[in-house]
Design goal:
Blueprint lengths: L1 E9 L8 E3 L4 E8 L7 E11 L7 E9 L6 E9 L2 E11 L6 E8 L5 E14 L3
Antiparallel strand pairs: 1-9, 2-9, 3-8, 4-7, 4-9, 5-6, 5-8
C-alpha cells in the first residue's frame, strides 16, 4: 500500500525546455519524498520526451536518479537511443533509510550532445508501507 506519492511534471516550452544535453551531466528536477522509515520501499517512474537534433547519427541519452544531491550516489540508471524522437521511460527502486525525508535528483547526459530534452518530463516517487 502507498504511504506517500509525489509527482514532478515539466511541460514542453516551460522553464529551460527545450534543453540541449551534452557531455556533462545536467540536473533536470528534484523529487522530495516524505514519510520514509527504515525498510520502506521507494519506487520511481521517469518519462522524458527527447529528440535527436543530429540527422546523421543515433542520439544517446543517459538517465540517472541520484540521492541526496545532484552529484550524489546513483540509485537507478538507464540509457536510451533514438534516430529521431520519442520518450525514454525508466522505473527503479530504493530502500528507505533513517531520514524521514529523502530528496532524489533526475539527471541526464548525452555523449556528443546528441539529445534535445523537449518535455514533458515526469518524475514520480512512491513510498510503500513496510511489510
Amino acid at each position: 500500500m502507498y504511504k506517500y506519492y509525489q509527482k514532478v511534471e515539466i511541460d514542453p516550452h516551460t522553464h529551460a525546455l527545450p534543453l540541449q544535453a551534452g557531455d556533462q551531466e545536467v540536473f533536470l528536477c528534484p523529487l522530495y519524498l516524505y514519510g520514509i522509515t527504515p525498510g520502506s520501499r521507494i519506487l520511481f517512474k521517469v518519462s522524458i520526451a527527447w529528440s535527436n537534433p543530429v540527422t546523421y547519427d543515433i542520439g544517446e541519452l543517459e538517465i540517472n536518479i541520484r540521492r541526496d544531491h545532484p552529484g550524489g550516489p546513483v540509485v537507478e540508471s538507464s540509457e536510451d537511443s533514438r534516430f529521431r524522437g520519442g520518450t525514454a521511460k525508466m522505473e527503479g527502486e530504493d530502500e528507505g533509510g533513517a531520514a524521514e525525508i529523502a530528496v532524489y535528483y533526475l539527471t541526464v547526459r548525452s555523449p556528443g550532445g546528441k539529445a534535445l530534452i523537449e518535455g514533458p518530463i515526469v518524475f514520480e516517487g512512491f513510498v510503500l508501507e513496510e511489510n
